Amino acid sequence: MAQSKPDAARRTRSGETTTAKQKQLEPHLQPAEAQLTTPDGLVVPDNHNSLRAGARGPALLEDFLLREKLTRFDHERIPERVVNARGAGAHGWFELYKSLGQYTRADFLQEAGLKTPVFVRFSGFTGERGSADTVRDLRGFAVKFYTREGNFDLVGASFPVFFIQDAIKFPDLVHALRPEPHHGMPQASSAHDTFWDFVSLMPESTHAAMWLMSDRALPRSWRMMEGFGVHTYRFVNAHGAAHYAKFHWKPKLGRHAMAWDEAQKLAGLDPDFHRRDLWEAIQRGHAPEWELGVQLVEEGKADALGFDLLDPTKLIPEEVVPVLPVGKLVLHRNPENVFAETEQVAFNPGHLVPGIDFSHDPLLQGRLFAYLDAQVARLSGPNFSELPINKPVCPFHHHGRDGAHRYGIPRGAVAYEPNSLVSGSEFRADGGQQGFQSIADEFESPKVRRRSASFDDHFSQATLFWNSQSPAEKDHLVCAFQHELARVETPAIRQRVIDNLTHVDAKLARKIGDALGLVPDAKAAAGRPGFREHRGKLPVETSPSLSLESAASPVTTRRVAVLVAPGVEIGALKIIQQVLGEQQVACRIVAAQMGSVATSSGQQLAVDHCLQTTSSLVFDAVLVPGGAAHAKSLVANGRAVHFVLEAYRHCKPVCVIGDGVELLATLGIDARTPSADGVLVSKADPAERIPLAQEFLAAIAKHRHWGRAKLDAVIA
Ligand code: HDD
Description:
Layout: E1 9-11, E2 17-19, H1 20-25, H2 64-74, E3 86-96, E4 115-124, E5 139-147, E6 150-157, H3 170-177, H4 193-201, H5 206-213, E7 227-228, E8 233-236, E9 242-251, H6 260-269, H7 273-283, E10 289-298, E11 324-333, H8 338-343, E12 356-358, H9 362-378, H10 460-467, H11 471-486, H12 491-501, H13 506-516, H14 522-526, E13 559-563, H15 571-582, E14 586-591, E15 595-598, E16 604-607, E17 609-610, E18 621-624, H16 628-635, H17 638-649, E19 654-657, H18 661-667, E20 679-682, H19 689-701
Parallel strand pairs: 13-14, 13-18, 14-17, 18-19, 19-20
Antiparallel strand pairs: 1-2, 3-4, 3-11, 4-5, 5-6, 7-9, 8-9, 8-12, 9-10, 10-11, 15-16
Helix pairs in contact: 3-4, 4-12, 5-10, 11-13, 12-13, 15-19, 16-18
EC number: 1.11.1.6
Binding site for heme: 81, 121, 170, 367, 371, 378
Organism: Ramlibacter humi
């Protein structure tokens, strides 16, 4: 019975949560420092010199220390994941808010307050393991719940829709997206001929392509990114009643994007930007959180949605079916070892627990084959489920035998079933009510290689997405299409893409076409193979939840750069620092040189970063304090000028005090309409300090001020 089982996660006296998974991993941890030995335990006498025939002579074959060390090294690499190769992970737990017993019998969703250990891996879909974090991409959001009934893997993504409807197209999609095989370019980018060729010929990919060109593909942080289970699953309760279920992860820190220019530059400046952000937040005790939610639709009531729930290129607007909050995910611990944990973890959408079942989504059905197959190759055989990171925390016993790297030592003669030897009685595990029970769906259809006509609507949700974007988000989308298509070398591909886009929105297609010197042709698109006339009737015309420009969100862990030079006045700075610090916003002092800077009152202000080695890209906002000499030196420093201009161009809040205003004037930034677009200007009046700090906080909470005009005129 669920009630009698212990929590899989417990609080220690220090308040930190130790999960059952953590306890299970502990015996596998190896000391960071110890006597150096060979893998077989022999103490290594000299780790610097190989065995030679004389001090200047050749190496000897006999040197097993050299041979073993080199052999071990030569085999350090395993194949990277065929997609989602670049990723980073963290440990944590999932805590249920209240019982979902009405909908599902899944044990981890029964008792309010129950904590289940998890391991989460975020990843980029397109790039190779050595690519960059901030590229324009769909991101993987894979969660392994170590439940008391076995592992449940929710192998999701940062978009709620996918590019294709049927798994048989997955290799084609991936081959089109990845570097072109003849020259191996481009890395981690969709801006090339083969990807857009595929999209132009597969109108079902239009909706996901819209997401890829939107701000959703440029998250500020994984901690500020939504996740989705994408497919429709099914919840089954103890009476066998089923509901369709779509999973959502909502970040506590809000949903935020970065500017495209910023993302591109960051890919060079700090390719590890997202993994560093996650790692540092956890190290500093700011455990990121997401809320798990589900959209539930009663079986039999799905027809009213205006599209087929089994089609993974579609979402359920949250305004039509609200997301029911289920529980929270907390990531509180970084892995001990990236390879042993993050690289060897094996997620599989086929890992379900009783009470959660698949739907007949043909993309999901194909995935059920692909993951185990991929992992057998990647992790050298079928025994990877015994690796510490993959092992369930509940007891397990199966008759799988042998294979490479068998870690456990199964006892006894029996590895088959039925058998009469183990318990002394003949035993057959079939037909019982325990464990996973598939929903007893009935089928009477003929075997066909064909899609349902209900999958024919390829555009209405792409239009819904477009209509739901703010004006600034629409501009970003248009720019992204222009950028990507301008990189496509074959004119006919560009033309086909914008022809298709007329069926999303004529204005969108025209705007993109204008920059490319092309006129979109709706009729040409409709005449091509693969095009379907069908347009579903959706219950809403816009869905505000699809836009990222929403209300302000918590500012915890945002980073503010404070630009200073000798002679800086720190009166206002101290107050602002204090107000921001109370909200866990970190102010970092940036100056021309490391060390310290003399303030106007003769104190020494310690410098955290120097302008030569940091950039506005790694900050969320900029603060320029007052001080005549300080402002003069900043105006004369090209790096400082660039720093502020770039932050302004990326729509980050900029706050200038007193003489700092000179800097704005020199930059040509119009400070006459302050606040509204996130530029705050203040005289050095002490009475203004606290209100200014609060206004600055509000501007940071809004994250980005995308409405700024004439950004193209900014030289940065
Ligand atoms: Fe997949 C990895 C998510 C469709 C085949 N996929 C992988 C990962 C994520 C997703 C998050 C990385 C897991 C990790 O961190 O280790 N995949 C998705 C989503 C999809 C999707 C959200 C559509 C809704 N995938 C999909 C299809 C297929 C695959 C249709 C094949 C039929 N995916 C794989 C794979 C990977 C993988 C090749 C690479 C390595 C691995 O699984 O273990 O099997």
